Automatic annotation (TrEMBL), chains A, B:
Alphabetical list of Pfam families matching this protein: FUR (PF01475)
Statement: the UniProt record of this protein carries the keyword Zinc: yes
Coiled coil: none
GO MF annotations, alphabetized: DNA-binding transcription factor activity; transcription cis-regulatory region binding; zinc ion binding
Cofactor: Mn(2+); Fe(2+); Zn(2+)
InterPro entries the record matches: FUR, Fur_C, WH-like_DNA-bd_sf, WH_DNA-bd_sf
Amino acids binding Zn(2+): C99, C102, C136, C139
Name of the protein in question: Ferric uptake regulator, Fur family
Length: 144, 144
DNA sequence: TTGCATGCAAAGGATTTGCACTATC
DNA sequence: GATAGTGCAAATCCTTTGCATGCAA
């Protein structure tokens, strides 16, 4: 599932060096947590997990790091409106399955033979992503 | 573009009556504003516009009404993460073009010959929507 | 050493909620 | 007249920011 966490971390370190960002344990820890989780955690959830290793980190730092990672293109926000932002370290072209009951989000690869045109309604198009809404197995079972 | 505002309002009134919700000018005004706008306004923007007609309404009521409308399926949140939630009264199957610079959102109809399977990864699938990211005409021009 | 990054706490913005009052049914 | 809906203001939740200190380069 997660392709070479270490390799991705190395890339991140390289990127930081090349643009003059310092390599701090906090930054690495935040990215590593995101790499190891495929459930699109919130900043709060990342924070909880980073804290297990580095109890001194602050939420603000996690927010700042996540913003940096996003700007560098290492992670992205899941395009869905819930209570708080959810992040995804999977940068390959993929889509999301979203449970409309509990909000769980899973990645899906789809072989869709469709590419958006370069321009639509005057917009210069860069990429697209698909949200598929449904009910996850857990929520199907808990129906009474 | 907007298909029969009055007709849709009537449907809403009918729905309210059938489930015992009261018909108040605030509710109608909020829905009407949403029906007449195709630019996916925020709650704040809806509020500003409703206020022109009914200067006494409160933001809280707009929030509550928008929530009701969403639960009844008359409007939906645009699945994109920006500063605040944006709503859409277009309930036909359509997709969104999103400007990554200014956040503008436009509706698009796509003829995609793809239907999601009934089940994916155990999720029972209901519907899907596509976000297409790019740069809107306005932002293309303002590049220096 | 030289900043950039961090931690802390306070600020800010969006949204929700409690309560008394009002208006629809 | 009963009750759901509203307005107001306070509360809450999520996120950002200012500032002094600490650490990577």
């Amino acid at each position: 599932m997660v392709t070479d966490v270490q390799e991705r971390l190395d890339e991140f370190v390289k990127a930081c060096k090349s643009i003059g960002l310092k390599i701090t344990p906090q930054r690495l820890a935040v990215y590593e947590v995101l790499l190891r989780r495929t459930d699109h955690p919130t900043v709060e959830e990342v924070y909880e997990e980073v804290r297990k290793l580095y109890p001194f980190v602050s939420l603000a730092t996690v927010y700042r790091t996540v913003e940096t990672l996003e700007e560098l293109g290492f992670i992205s926000k899941v395009p869905y409106w819930g209570g708080s932002a959810r992040y995804d370290a999977n940068t390959s072209h993929h889509h999301h399955l979203i449970c409309t009951v509990c909000g769980a989000i899973a990645d899906v690869d789809l072989n869709i033979n469709w590419e958006p045109p370069a321009y639509m309604k005057g917009y210069q198009v860069h990429r697209f992503s698909i949200n598929i809404y449904g009910v996850c197995p857990k929520c199907q079972n808990s129906k009474t």
